[in-house]
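hey so i finally got around to running the thing on that chain from the lab meeting. sorry it took forever, my laptop kept dying and i had to restart like 3 times. anyway pasting the input first so we r on the same page abt which one it is
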Amino acid sequence: MGNLSSLTVIDLQKNGLHGHIPESLGHLKLLTVLSLSFNKLVGSIPTSLGNLHALIEIDIDNNQLEGSIAPSIFNISSLEIFNVQNNNLNGYFPPDLGSKLPNLKLFLVNGNGFHGEIPPSLCNTSAIQMIQMDANFLSGTIPNCFGIQQNNLLELTFADNQLEATNDGAWSFLSGLTNCSNLKYLDVSQNKLHGKLPDLIGNLSKNLFYLNLQFCSITGNIPESIGNLIGLSELGMNNNLLEGSVPSSIGSLKLLNQLDLSNNNLSGPIPVTLGNLTMLALLRLNGNAINEGIPSNLSSCPLGFLDLSHNSLTGAIPKALFLISTLSDSLCLDHNLLTGTIPPEVSNLRNLGKLDFSSNKMSGEIPISIGNCQNLQYLNVSGNFLRGSNSTISRTTKWSLGA
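ok and heres what got predicted. didnt touch it at all, straight out
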């Protein structure tokens, strides 16, 4: 193939190609696109590819390539798309990467084994739209220059690395990102990010629909300004060290589909404003110290999954909760301080797969109507003061009455 000197495009993606990438491809001086994605290629990336000075797009993702990337490849100044994601590549990124690749629009290196720091020069790529560097072994801090000269940035992902924020000031990288009015996707989860979230997080783009901050070590309160991000569809802040109450301003996020604040140190009541989220399908507040009663207006949300377990919720379960016809996955209210009975309206949850009321202070009879929950696969009401016979729940495949 290296003899086909007039070739400008090679697209061999999604075949069953084995073996190494030929060194001879470096002879194709007119080549602008090289796409070898989704094959079974092995070995290293040939250094000869650095001779392809007309190359605009390189897609060699989703193979089994290994080794480091030759410095000559980072000298192809014409490159707009650099996609090597989901391989076994390693090594470091050169500090002048952004200066050598000034025309970059897509920089996709996630799912490899790259080490070292994120080059601040990557902030100089003014045409960049997507930066995906998640699932590597990157360390150091996130440069605070991202977004200052990158008005076209749509997606920025650094998740699942070893990046650090040792104090509140290390979150200053958010400041530059407030200039990115088109930013839609931001993921810095599963890093060593300590400190408190600054209020300026609420100044991020109103077009942001995905924000993932889970599995870090974030402390302090959730800023009320989070309610300014009115474009959010998914918000994940679970498995941190957050404290204080759940901001009522979250009720302003009318497009929110998934909210996960589980496994923190949050306290106070569930805001009644969450009932305003008429597109909310998943709500996880489990593993906190949230107290008081369950707002009945959560029934206004089209929930398919609701987990409020392992808190300090009190009072009876609102009957309105059993009128959420969309509940099809789980309703978990276990390990709280709930009282009252299981109302006969539980029969409305015909599509529900998992129902857990265990370890509360509920009493009374288990209603016969629970047998109408025809899709129920898991039922646990143990650790209460309930009465009833096992025939009541004979349609379930796994159940526990407890004592």
